[in-house]
Every structure is written in C-alpha cells, then in structure tokens.
Amino acid sequence: DPYAQLLLEALKQSGCTVFNDRHFSCENCDGCVSGGFDSATSQIVLCQNNIRQQSHMNRVVTHELIHAFDHCRAHVDWFKNVKHLACSEIRAANLSGDCTLMNEIARFKFGLKGHHQTCVRDRAIRSILAVRNVSKETAEKAVDEVFDACFNDLEPFGRIPHSKTDAKRAYRDFQNRDRYNANL
Fold first, then answer.
1. What are the φ and ψ backbone dihedral angles of 33, each rounded to 5 degrees?
2. Does the keyword NAD apply (predicted)?
3. Which of 64, 89, 137, 140 is catalytic?
4. 19-29 pLDDT, tens per residue?
C-alpha cells in the first residue's frame, strides 16, 4: 500500500523505525473500533474482529501510522492535551483516505462544497470521543481551535492523497525530496 510505504519510510527517516513483529498487534476489540495507536508501547493495534476487507485494513493501518508519525516527530501529549490529540486526529482523517468521496458515498453522506473538511472535522471529533472521556463540546472546541493549522499540515505526504495514485505520487515525491538540494 503506497500510503503505508510512505509513512513507514517517513518514520524511519524521523528516527522511528517500525518493525512489523514489534509495532503491530492484531487483537479482538470491544465495540466497533477498528484500530488504535498505543503511545506507551508505540504499537498499532488492529482490531481483527472489526476489519472485514483489505481496503478497510489499509485505511486503518494508514490512520494509525499517521498517529505514530505524529508521536515520533511532534512528541504528542496524548493524555493531557486534548488539542494535541485533536490535531493528530484531524491529520489522520485528512491524510488516510478516511474522507474520500467513495468512502463518504458508502456511508451515505453526500455533499460537494467543503465536504472533505466537514468529514475530517466530524471524524476527528468522533475519534476523540471514542478514546477520551470528554464532552462533545470539549472535543468540538479542541478540533475547531487547531483545525486550520492541522488540516494544512500535510507531512509527510506533501498533498492530500485522495487516491492510491495520489499516494504513489506523494511517495515518489517523498523519495526524491532531497535530490534537488543534493545536486546544488
């Protein structure tokens, strides 16, 4: 998957190499949660009982790898600062493919103008509420306060990858980032 390839390479370049046997865990989970990132162990949990398709698993892995990347590069305070969590959830919803047009149509959510931003905001709030015992108002306030900065933080993709083709281009661009400067 080009999304995961790019994120794994970015993590490695940031000094946080990921090992499949150490940093991924498949478990049965409660409710309808598909996955999570455990910052204490730097481990991505995939909820095997709630993931039924490869495409869904790819999105979950990408979403959680974005959290791992944020944890590595930004030293996110996941438990004490809800704005940090909100920012990472915004980035994960924006960059993972969670809010592609096809996924939204599958959820029976339609809209054109500003729909991607609305989806990202709603999914970030939903994710915060799933992992923290805060009020909806607190989650909404945190998301709204950091939305613009975090929505526009496209690292390591450099663009919002709306498809696998976009993700492949972003990965190719990421691999070639330092070539220009190296040739000067």
1. -70, 140
2. no
3. 64
4. 888 899 999 99
